[in-house]
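Appendix B. One record, verbatim.
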Amino acid sequence: MSNNKVWMVTGAARGLGNEIVKAALAEGYKVVATVRKNKEQLLSDLNSENLHVVVMDVTDEGQVKVAVEQAVAYFGHIDVLVNNAGFGLLSAVEEGTDKEVRNMYDTNVFGLLNVLRAVLPYMREQRSGHVVNISSVGGLSGSAGWGLYNSTKFAVEGLTEALSKELAPLGIYATAVEPGQFRTNFHDGSSLKIAEHLIDDYSESSGSMRTHISESNYTQPGDPAKLAKAVLITVESRNPPLHLPLGKDCIKRYQDKTAAFEKDLKQWYEIAASTDFDDVKG
C-alpha cells in the first residue's frame, strides 16, 4: 500500500471512526481526525506525529469549512475522506418527535453534506481522491424500531450512488460502506438515542427491538479492527466498489431483501408493467 495519502476521518473519538484512524496510522498514513470535544484525549491515546486532531461539529458548516482549511494547511492535501460521524435513534416511525428526527438528520445527512462541500473542492482541484461514506446495513434494509435511522442511511446510499457518477470523470471515487452489527459502543447512550415518547401499540415491534439491542450489546459478531482493515484495502484498490457490505449478517440481510423484492416483482409484474401509455413499446 502507498502510504503518502492524507486521510480525514470524522467522528474519530470512538467506535468505527477511531478504529479506522488507528489502522491508517499503523500503515504510515497521515490522518486528520475530527472530534466534537476532548481533542487532547485522542492525541494522548494515539500519540503519532502523523496525526492531526481538529475539533469539528459536522452540523456547524462554518466550523467544518475552517477545520478543512486547517487540515489542508497542515498536511497539504486530503486524499481520503471518511464520513463516519453519526448516531442512531431507536424508535418506531410514529414515536420519534420532530426535534429528535431533525437532530439525527442534521448529523447523519446534512452534516455529511457539510463535510462533502468543504472537502470536494480540494479533491476536484487535484483530480483525485476517495470519499468513503459510512452507511449501515440499515441503509440497505429497514427494520422495526430503526425506520427513522434507516431513512438517514438510505439517504446516504442515494447520495453516494449519485456522487460516484458525478465524481468519476474527475478521477475521484465514492464508496458506501455498509457495516452489519459490529462490536462497538454504538448501542450505548452516547451514540444511540431512545425515543422519549413510546407507544404501547408498538411494544411487539420497536419495543421488542429495544429489548434485543439491550441484551445483545457487546456481543455483536463484527470485529471493528477487521472492518478498518477492509476500508484500507478498499481505498487502495484500483477498482474500488461503490457498495461495500461488511459482515455476514449484512450480506444475509441484503440477500433476503433482494429475494423478497424479486418475489414481489414476479407476483405483481403485470400490474407493475401496466402503467405505461399503450403506445410505449418494450
